[in-house]
Amino acid sequence: MKNFIIIIFFLLISFQVSGQQATSNGGGDVDDPLLWSTPATWEPEGSPNEPDVDNDGNVIENVAIYGFVLKSGNLQLGNRTNDVNLTIEENSILRINGDYDQPNRTDNVITVKTGGLLIIDGALLTGNRYSDLTINNFGTIVVTEYYDDPSPFYENEIINNEGATLYIIGDEEDLPEGVDTQPDPDVGDGNGGIDPEKLDDFIEELIGIALPITLHSFTYEIKSKAVQLNWVTAMELNFDHFTIERSADAVNFDAIGTHSSKVEGNSDTQTAYDFTDIDPLVGQSYYRLKATDIDGTVEYHEELEVWYEDLEKPVVLFPNPVPVSSEVINLIFSAFAEGQVEILDAYGRIVFTKNFETDELKSHSDGFHFRVATNKTELKRGMYTAKTFQNGGRQQIIRFIVR
Which of 105, 196, 224, 306 has the most beta carbons within 10 angstroms of its beta carbon? Predict the structure, then answer.
């Protein structure tokens, strides 16, 4: 009997599945959207098959929409053992020709990022049993029929962040308290119903606004004494140019260059760009892309955090040799960043350690000075090693003598 139970246990283990993300490949437009049901739409190919697994049997816990994806029929993600996070990325669109129907016993999250658009040509159904739905909206959501929350005992939540818009063209009675919606657009047929052509015109107008570009990736490389920025668009529509901006504090940005669109007209294929900052800031800095359409509409994309240091300029320690009576050792860093200093004796024992913040660095013409107070350490005569490390940078080693 014991052996039988062990066999069953291992069989159960073998059928466990791991969580994965399904990501649409970008591209698609009003006339030729990516189809949810097409395997090539997704990476890994073939996922997600409803309700929750891909072709390899892996549980899909996150679904990310890049580009314009069309779902024909109702969309139902997850089951009682698997919650799903659905994210519509910047300037991307998911259009559901049917209801969003949340299964019972699931706690799903829908996030619509800035410039993203979620269109539900039907009802938004939140599930009626042990289900919580959180909608985190930074973009635009349109529900053409109604919002339905059949069970008031569970915590469904819609968060409209700054700049977000929400249209519920049908019945709003079940909306969570305090949720603001936009006035209904002029899509009526004059008899209390909805005119399908007017509704299509309204949605196509929103789609035209939402899809100037879709940014697929934004990365960087350190090349010699420069920072090369690389980015790829998955789609461009009526797009004119990028402005590359840089900041030392992720708050105040300055323009350092521009790059015109490589696309003539519109494109639903990937387009690669690069820009080289030949005079980068030393230490931590931030880059972002400002996208400008042909009509002058501007949109900012997420910042890219970069660490740069001049590898040809090592940390300097002075004086060296250090007088045995000295109470201070000075270090000169090329980067303005927090870090750590360790001092080891000739036997490799740590005799001093100090973490420092940026406000302890003093700017001089030859770099950023840091004073190491060693008076309490009482360094004796001999050979020592100083190890320095700054966040995001490499460790450096300086040997010095105390005499």
Answer: 306
